[in-house]
Amino acid sequence: MKIEHPWRNLLQRKYRPHMTMAVMIPFFQQLTGINVIMFYAPVLFNTIGFGSNASLMSAVITGVVNVVATMVSIYGVDKWGRRFLFLEGGFQMLICQAVVAACIGAKFGINGNPGELPKWYAIVVVLFICIYVAGFAWSWGPLGWLVPSEIFPLEIRSAAQSINVSVNMLFTFIVAQIFLTMLCHLKFGLFLFFAFFVVLMSIFVYYFLPETKGIPIEEMGQVWKTHWFWARYVADEDYPIGGGYEMTKGGQGPKNV
């Protein structure tokens, strides 16, 4: 089976939900702030007031938490569903970002000079950053790649996945470039900035992302047809009920067989 014109196919009205997910999921994934925290963990911890050795050790700890928590997603993604992990992870990251912002704000103040951090204070900050990393690692981390792969049909998969990866890399680069400047100017407000986007992405998932657990890719069309919002973009003839599907000539869409 030859797929032709995937980019042209992606512009069809019935693929509006897929296009939206291809852009918004990787966009929100990067606006959690996870990559910059992982990239700059030693710098971040040193800025907060840790010693250099403690900063490096804290960065190693968050890396280990990231790996272990990803294993939870492997177990839970088909047990609890994608939406549950997305929303639970978002809530967990929101709480942790608010707590870290409060801790750093209380110590930094407006002038950004933390002085000497008590040991217990440093442990609390590291603990909540680790919980934040865990929340991402079993939700938006793996699911940001899994869900797009489950919703793109063959005739648009190459184009849609290209957009998905490109948006992810673009915002990884942008956020990484501006992170240190934002940290210097916003201080504890940086975590509130990311928390704001966590709220937005959780609202987006709650209202616009259907559950894909246990749904074969060839049946996703029926999911879009019954969704409260996306149904307006999908006509009955786009995904007829019953039978299998085959590509029409030129990859212009599926037809019932």
Automatic annotation (TrEMBL):
Query: What GO MF annotations does this protein's record show?
Result: carbohydrate transmembrane transporter activity; symporter activity
Q: Which UniProt keywords apply?
A: Membrane, Sugar transport, Symport, Transmembrane, Transmembrane helix, Transport
Q: Which InterPro entries match?
A: MFS_dom (IPR020846), MFS_sugar_transport-like (IPR005828), MFS_trans_sf (IPR036259), STP/PLT_plant (IPR045262), Sugar/inositol_transpt (IPR003663), Sugar_transporter_CS (IPR005829)
Specify the superkingdom.
Eukaryota
Pfam families per record:
Sugar_tr (PF00083)
User: Where does the sequence pass through the membrane?
Assistant: 21-43, 55-77, 84-108, 120-141, 162-182, 188-209
Any idea where the Major facilitator superfamily (MFS) profile domain is? Answer: 1-213
The entry's cellular-component GO terms read: membrane
Main location class: membrane
Recorded topology in the membrane: Multi-pass membrane protein
Q: Does the keyword Transport apply?
A: yes
Is Transport set as a keyword in this record? yes
Which compartments does it reside in? Membrane
Question: What family does the entry list?
Answer: Belongs to the major facilitator superfamily. Sugar transporter (TC 2.A.1.1) family.
Q: Can you name this protein?
A: SOLUTE CARRIER FAMILY 2 FACILITATED GLUCOSE TRANSPORTER
